[in-house]
What we know:
The structure holds 2 protein chains of 2 kinds. By secondary structure, chain A is mainly alpha-helical. Chain A has a domain at 274-503. Chain A is 76% helix and 1% strand. Chain A contains 20 helices and 2 strands. The longest helix of chain A is centred in the C-terminal third of the chain and has 36 residues, at 330-365. The relative contact order of chain B is 0.10. In chain B, strand 3 (166-167) and strand 4 form a beta hairpin. In chain B, helix 14 (347-378) packs antiparallel against helix 19. The mean pLDDT of chain B is 88. Helix content of chain B is 72%, strand content 4%. Chain B has a two-stranded antiparallel sheet with strand order 1-2. Chain B has one domain (2-521). The A-B interface holds A 338, 342, 392, 397-399, 403-404, 407-408, 410-411, 414-415, 417, 423, 426-427, 430-431, 433-434, 437-438, 441-442, 445, 448-449, 487-489, 492-493, 495-496 and B 73-77, 141, 144-145, 148-149, 151-152, 155-156, 159-160, 179-180, 183-184, 187-188, 191-192, 195-196, 198-199, 202-203, 205-207, 231, 234.
Amino acid sequence: MFDYHALAPELILGVTLLVVLGIDLIVSERHKYLAGVAALVGMVTAAFPLLTLAFCDAIAECTDTGSRSLFGGSYVFDDFALVLKGLFLVSGIITLLLSVGYLESDDYYQGEFYFLVLASVTGAVVMASARDLITIFVGLELVSAPAFLLAGWRKGDLRGNEASLKFFLTGVLATAVMLFGMSLVFGLTGEITYAGIASQTALLDLGSEPAFVMGVVFVLVGFAFKVSAVPFHFWAPDTYQGAPTPVAAYLSVGSKAAGFVGLLVICYQAFAAVPEIWGPILWVLAAASMTIGNLGALKQTNIVRLLGYSSIAHGGFILVPFAMAASYDSVGLADAFFGSITYLLIYAFMNLGAFAMVIAGAAKAKSHEIADWAGMNRYAPMTAGLLALFFFALAGIPPLAGWFAKFVMFRAVLGVFESGWAIALAAIAAVNAVIALFYYARVVKSVYMDEVPITVPPAEAAEVPTAPSLVLAIAITAVVVIVVGFFPQVLAFFGEAARVFSS
Amino acid sequence: MDWFENGWGLSLIVFLPLAGALLVLLLPRKQERAAKFTALIFALASFAGSVYAAVTFELGSSAQFQFGTDLSWISAIGSRFHIGIDGISLPLLVLSTLITLLCIVYSWNHWPEPHNPKAFLVLMLVLATGMNGTFVALDLVLFFIFFELVLLPMYFMIGIWGDRTKIRIPGFKREVETRLYASIKFFLFTLFGSAFMLLGFLALYFKSDPHTFDMIALAEAGRAGAFAGAFGGWVFAALFLGFAVKVPMWPLHTWLPDAHTAAPTVGSVLLAAILLKLGAYGFIRISLPILPEQARDWAPAIAILAVIAIIYGSLACLAQTDMKRLIAFSSVGHMGFVMLGIATLTDIGINAAVIGMVAHGLITGLLFFLAGSMQHRYHTREISRLGGNMKLMPVIGGLLGFAAMASLGLPGLAGFWGEFMALLASFNPLDGLSLTVFRTAMVVGAIGTVLTAGYFLWMLQKVNLGEPPAEWTGKELHDADRFELAAWAPLVIAIFAIGVYPKIIFGATDGAVVNLIRSAFGG
């Protein structure tokens, strides 16, 4: 019998997509928000099968069909996939919570927006399970294509147009490069599934075959664009700035995480036999992303751009555990997975929270310029306090969750401390952690220690309400950031589950 | 009380202030009285707990960790909630809870601008949890968390309530307010050090077999030579960076004068009295027992840096025109004596370091309180503008004289023991350490004590004695009020008591120190 239980999350999302489209067609302009509600309900519902799948052994009615691998190994449900599907759904849910109030305040078309977000999340959920070249490609495009549209949502805004066009052109270029790489890999190995590619690579000893090396490099470059790793990052700050802020939040968390997952899985499954090709490339990408991202963020005056550069730097930190791939044994590899996935989970909550505060703060200060946010704690102490919370969490200051992310990252790379390259990368990461503090603290300084600028009338700004859905999003992320800071085991549990992924 | 001894006691001492902070946070901002009483009660409870711990502490086995517990915390990385105190951490823990309590008492009606008691109290209480926790943590990750927990509150304390004087920083086009410059400098320096310290911790974890973050297990492994060779050297260097910034040791001290000067009174007191101790405590608790071989290699270098700090601190003091800055630089010198004591790797030296830390906490704490109160009245800290303080404010003036005398190491007061014994220990350091270096260090250090006496007497003469300048005559200047006296009296009593009867401290520390030296260095 076909394993409908395993596919349930995707099926639910697919049905919800249709329902959202339908609602958008039927309901009147005033009730468009129902499309958002439907999308939200769909994503929450899709999360339930994840739980029943994860705890299948413990449920009496659950018929365990053995290995949950569908379509000849192309589509796999292990704990790794489940954890990441959960992450994508949560980031999708929070993105929608951020969007509801934001869209209402600006009178945009709503139905399509929710449809596109939902489609993109569905793509990410597919990617978590994909274990062959075609599925991963389809998944990735399903993530990206709606994102191109979302980035250009503000049709009348020049920056919005620039954001969308830049994102689209670089995205398509990346796709083309990646497809070329994939076709080379397929041509040389004759295999589509990751397992098949890995075994053929070892069998035919393709590690030194120039065309194969080129194929691997092209695939990496394609993914590097998607995760905006330096030197393929330049689109990110512009796109984040021009896109509606909730979309920027989604791009920097959901779609970025999808890119990382695709990258890590393809490296560790399809190219598992040739880590000497991609290991050094990831080392360079990690070091460059951390450094350039941080240095770039130092001089930003726009808070969204600042978060854009900061997300580039965080991307570097996430890559750090994998840079030493060639020297890991199986324990080290599991630690590396644990490190990257845990970082990704914590980063998702911190960054979504930070963007939520940007939306809340910008509504009060009527500006995205950091200078205009000065003295916000005078008229909006809650907003200022939570902003400081998320920004210091991103900086990795204990006892906020970010410290644990940095910690597991260092832990993974120092697991091979005999290697000079590992120590060098750890040192680069340590210096970057300090640089990062400087720009996060600069925002907090402005908010807490500077005088309110004359352009902002404090009494009026204090009156600006925060949308209930936004408050909910902030509450969820803030609680996670604080609780995980004190009891990291809460999220580390998921990271540990994800490290079961092997071969 | 069984529950107190099996971990609950220490946990309460550490986390009661944090609970108090949460409670204060929930109070409306208008309810200042409620906020103050809540903070006071929680700080008092934490202090009472530490006093009870001190009273019931078994002095006979002070080398053992008492009142401890070891619970599962982050199983994914093998880190545990392992706490406990021995004779070395006990005095520092009591000092930390006491100073926090006194700071709240002092603040009762001395709120720095911008007036916001609620936020200020929250920060103070969070800070207290970080400080207390550092002294009880026996797991490296737990230690790291508490060690870093102090950064945020202190950053906000300096940055929001700090000095608003504008200064020109070389390399910057515009003038910046002191508080802004000092707060970020403090934050960046400390974070820089601790980032590398964390790398060192992780390296220890991976080198130990089985992997562990437990300080006691790591110390055993260290004694067995698990971290020998170049590896240990790198790890020691990484830890050194973290601790030396915090102490601070010359030449990593440059954040200190700025931070101390810019911080509000209570901030300066907490910085000087407790935060500086965290670094030196880290050396004693982590670097020496876990990496004894490297400690031996590095000892002469640390001794040299320590005496440079002593001399540099005193000379810098002589050049200061600002009272708070003078006291700040004197801290550099005093912490130099503490580090010199540690560098000798002898039981006398480390006993000297611990008593030196406690004494410095009490004395410099008092000095910063006094400097703050004087600034509150004169609205200036310029030594040249002050004078005749004894006539204008006899109580504050008298206490200033007392604290300065204690700080310059007058026998019979607490400051004497740390300096004297550090010098004594460097006459006869651990076998195998270069006698030339340490005896030279002793001579130079002794010269340093003379210089210290010099600048403190010079300051007293300028500020306290003589006729008040015309600017102050006829002005209505209130002498110390009852909150100030309530905050200072315990410090004065403790300075006397330890000066006359140092066994209060040595009784606790000696057993633990002797055991540390014997097991790590066989001395």
